[in-house]
Amino acid sequence: MSASRAEPGGRLDVVLVKAGLTKIRYPAELLADDGTRITVRAPWAGGATRDFGFVRFEPGDVFTEHYWRDRWYSVKEVRDARGALKGWYCDVTRPATRLGVEVVVEDLDLDLWRSADGRDIRRLDEDEFAASGLAERDPEAAAAALAALDELEVLAREDGFGALLT
């Protein structure tokens, strides 16, 4: 792997930006980059256990993350340390950019969760999105973000992201 380009199996840093500041940066293994979708695998980067009430992200969990350069979201398959599927956590973001060995995404607050069995599909953080002021600052981006959340919900209900991720 060169300093400016990661090859499959190489290391990338995922950089999640919110309100112009880096929210989190973590290393990931590059699985694929077809020019449109970037797929990486990374351990839970939150450190300690985070209990959302409907799912717990814990040390040992593994995320297979899919980022698109032409879509306003990312989809993250979440498995526990034994490999059992917990579900999918989706972030509404601006389209991803890859800068050398970094995948950079701007978080737009909206999220969606789909449990492994598909019985629990929930839209998250709509209050944070409303409070962010994005609709006033950038109405086009806000409309794209809401459309992305709607699209994710439809995909989650239809086939659990099967067609999207194959």
Automatic annotation (TrEMBL):
Transmembrane segments: none annotated. Gene3D superfamilies: FomD-like. It comes from the Bacteria. Residues 52-160 form the DUF402 domain. InterPro entries: DUF402 (IPR007295), FomD-like_sf (IPR035930), Ntdp-like (IPR050212). Keywords: Hydrolase. Pfam families: DUF402 (PF04167). The keyword Calcium does not apply. The keyword Ribosomal protein does not apply. This is DUF402 domain-containing protein. It comes from Streptomyces thermogriseus.
